[in-house]
C-alpha cells in the first residue's frame, strides 16, 4: 500500500505528518510520490486543492483522503486525533473497512491564444477569468450559441465541489457533488440600460459546454483553484465537465448536507 502526504506546512500539520509516517510504517505502508494509492491531505480544504494539483496525473489510480486541522472541511473527513483509526481502516480489507470510493466531477478549461496555441487545465473548485487593466468584456456562448455579452469584474465556472467556495460568495447555488455539472456565476456584472446579463447563475449538465470570447484588450487574470496567472491575447476559453474525476476514499458516512449545515449554519436550531 503506497501513500503520499501533502500538508499545509503549519506546526500542527507537520506534527501530524510525522505521526502519520510512524503509524504507516508500522502497518507496512510505503511512501511513494510516483504511484500513491492514497494521497492524504493534512491541513484545510486549501491543502486538498494543492494535493489535487500535485497529483493531477494520478487521478485514475489514487484515492484522496483529508485530515482536517482546525475547523471541519468539505474535503476532509478525519480529525487529528483519529489518524491511528484511519490508518487501520486504510489497511483493512475493503469489506471490513467499509471503504467507499466516491468520484466527483472536475471542470476542464481550454484556453486558446491568438497565435493558435491551446492550453488545457483542470480545476477541483473553480476557474475564473477577470480583467486586469480594464473591465472584462466577453461574449458568452452556450453550446455554440451566443448567449450574452458580459461586462463586469469576471466570470466564475465552478464544479459542484467548488459550489460551496467562491461560487457561494457570488450568490451561486450549492450543488451536491454527485451531480455531473458545472455552474457559471457572474462576478460583479454591470447591468443597466446599455449592458445586460442574465444576473443569475446557470448550471450546465455534463453534455453541455460554454465558451468565453474576451472582447476587452489587455491582460486577464486566470485562476484555477488556489493558482493564478496572467494571460493576454486570449481568443477563447472552453469550459466543460471533464471526463476525468477525482476519487475520495470514504471509510464512514459523512453526508454532504451535514457538512454544509455544519460549515454555514452550525448546530443551533433555536
Ligand atoms: P484562501 O483564500 O486561503 O482560503 C479560501 C477559503 O475557502 C478557506 O477557508 C478554505 O478552507 C475555503 N475553501 C476551499 N475550498 C472550499 C470548498 N470546496 N468549499 C468550501 N470552502 C472551501 O485560499 P485557498 O485555501 O488556497 O483556497 C482557494 C479557494 O479560495 C478558491 O478555490 C476559491 O474557491 C476560494 N476563494 C474564495 C473567494 C471568496 O469567497 N470571495 C475569493 C477567492 C477565492 P480551508 O480554510 O479549510 O483551507
Task: Please tell me about this protein's structure.
The protein has about 270 residues and is α+β, with helices and mostly antiparallel strands. It folds into 2 domains: about 1-100 and about 250-265, Rossmann fold (3-Layer(aba) Sandwich); about 105-245, Tumour Suppressor Smad4 (Sandwich). Helices cover about 20% and strands about 45% of the residues. The protein contains 6 helices and 15 strands. The strands form 2 sheets. Strands 5, 6, 7, 8, 9, 10, 11, 12, 13, 14 and 15 form an 11-stranded antiparallel β-sheet that branches. A hairpin with a 2-residue loop joins strand 8 (about 135-140) and strand 9. The chain is elongated and about 65 Å long. It starts with a strand and ends in a 6-residue tail after the last helix. NADP nicotinamide-adenine-dinucleotide phosphate (NAP) binds near residues 46, 73, 166 and 225.
* Secondary structure tally, helices: 6
What portion of residues belong to β-strands? 35-45%
Count of the separate structural domains: 2
Q: Structural class given helices, strands, pairing?
A: alpha+beta
Distance between the termini: 47 Å
Low-confidence stretches: none
What is the CATH C-level name of the largest domain? Mainly Beta
Report mean pLDDT, rounded to a whole number: 95
Number of strands: 15
Q: Please describe the biggest sheet, giving its number of strands, its sense, and whether it closes into a barrel.
A: 11 strands, antiparallel
Compute the CA-based radius of gyration. Answer: 20 Å
Enzyme class: transferase
Protein name: NAD kinase
Keywords: Kinase, Transferase
EC number: 2.7.1.23
